[in-house]
Write a structure and sequence with these properties.
Chains A, B: It comes from Cohnella pontilimi. 2 copies of one chain form a homodimer. Chain A folds into 2 domains: 67 residues, Winged helix-like DNA-binding domain superfamily/Winged helix DNA-binding domain (Arc Repressor Mutant, subunit A), CATH 1.10.10.10; 32 residues, no CATH class. Helices cover 54% and strands 13% of the residues of chain A. Chain A has 6 helices and 3 strands. In chain A, 26% of the residues are buried. The model of chain A has no long low-confidence stretch (mean pLDDT 88). The structure holds a DNA duplex (30 and 30 nucleotides).
DNA sequence: TTGACAGGACACCGTTTGGTGTCTTATCAT
DNA sequence: ATGATAAGACACCAAACGGTGTCCTGTCAA
């Protein structure tokens, strides 16, 4: 259905707190260029760029060049796999959520 | 509220496919001893034990000694953090799920 | 009581990870 | 035309990861 050309495991991609922060930042705007993202972190541009590459490999981010800057955009849909995975186990931490889980499963179909 | 003594990031703990497989196995039974878990994998006992240690550090697993064997048990509740995290982004991959998300948020309180 | 089994504790190893710095190229503004 | 900015492409590095094998101890069964 959607893009399954991800070379990188989504669970692996979201394991790093810096990358989750990047996702959070990208969720707050249409597009953000690398230098602007870099400004939000203590680390250098190269490191941030590497994290974005990993997110790209997982299909969580797309990029396009505009002038001299590279702008990044969030594509959250691969996170659905995480959602599907975790919802299964929500039965195990609370029983009164099981009604909601059934709702979710219905909606998935 | 619940145990927050986790030395290890939950997202990090579930990043490895072997560890997700361990969680899956432990979800299917009350308790499973190490040697029995090891039998399900190709790798050796030491490796499986290390993975279980990581899961333990994330609070996802508890263990108890019974005779000469160490039995492991799933504690899924730290996965709630993952659920909370991913639910936020479900707005970004589908708009007709937002009703369900509101349901989830209500239930969380 | 002897042997087999379960598993903790190490030491070890190759690869990956997460960062750095530097060099170069392309682009924009003056 | 010149200088500053954006970022790709590397080389490099220490530390963590994901495995291995070995040794030792405790426990169960014959």
């Amino acid at each position: 259905m959607s893009e399954n050309n991800q070379l990188r495991d989504v669970f692996d991609a979201i394991a790093d707190p810096t990358r989750r922060q990047l996702i959070r930042l990208l969720a707050g705007a249409e597009e953000i260029p690398l230098h602007e993202l870099t400004a939000k972190f203590q680390m250098g541009r190269t490191a941030v760029s590497k994290h974005l590459t990993i997110l790209k490999e997982a299909g969580l981010v797309t990029d396009r060049k505009v002038g001299r800057e590279t702008r990044f955009r969030l594509n959250a849909s691969p996170l659905r796999e995480v959602q599907d995975w975790v919802v299964f186990y929500s039965n195990f931490w609370s029983t009164n959520l099981s009604r909601l889980n059934r709702l979710l499963e219905e909606e998935e179909e």
